[in-house]
Write a structure and sequence with these properties.
The protein is an alpha/beta fold. Helix 1 crosses helix 6 and helix 5 crosses helix 6.
Length: about 190
Amino acid sequence: MCMSDLTFVTGNSLKYRNASESFLRAGIHLVKLELDIPEIQAEDAAEIARAKSQAAYDILQSAVLVNDDSWKLLGLKGFPGAYMKSMNHWFSVEDWAHLTEPLTDRRVILSQIVVFQSATQQKVFTNEVHGELLKAPKGKSDVSAQSIITMDGDNGKSIAEVLTENPQHYFDRQISKVWDEVAAWYMDQTP
């Protein structure tokens, strides 16, 4: 297996940029590839990511990475979970604010799932990042929920505000942990 390049199957440029930064520090170039892979319907994001990684491998016949995120709003019994992408498509920030306004449990858990798939191995990596729902939207984003959620350590600023002010800060504190872990593990696989 060539350790200098690895294919990351994603259509999300922000996810690709974040993953690339961790892998570049490890001397690995991630190749971004968009594939039209049917996504299974499931509440378990890890199950979805495992199925996507196998489907991507079956098409490419080479090692791949895939990523799926799950956003659990604890006051809504874990909703929307693996369906956040669809909810952001359907809901405006005002819809999110209206839906979540009466909640007393305002905790949010982002579960990041990254799956490496090769001919002989499927390896799942996970990371949880905690936050909470804001009482009112803050900041502007094309992703509606980013204006209503703050992550721990962001002093009450929404994800949208943090990304606008300093996207690198958000990556360094919140997102890089799982990608750094995957990159380190991948480097250890060198024969």
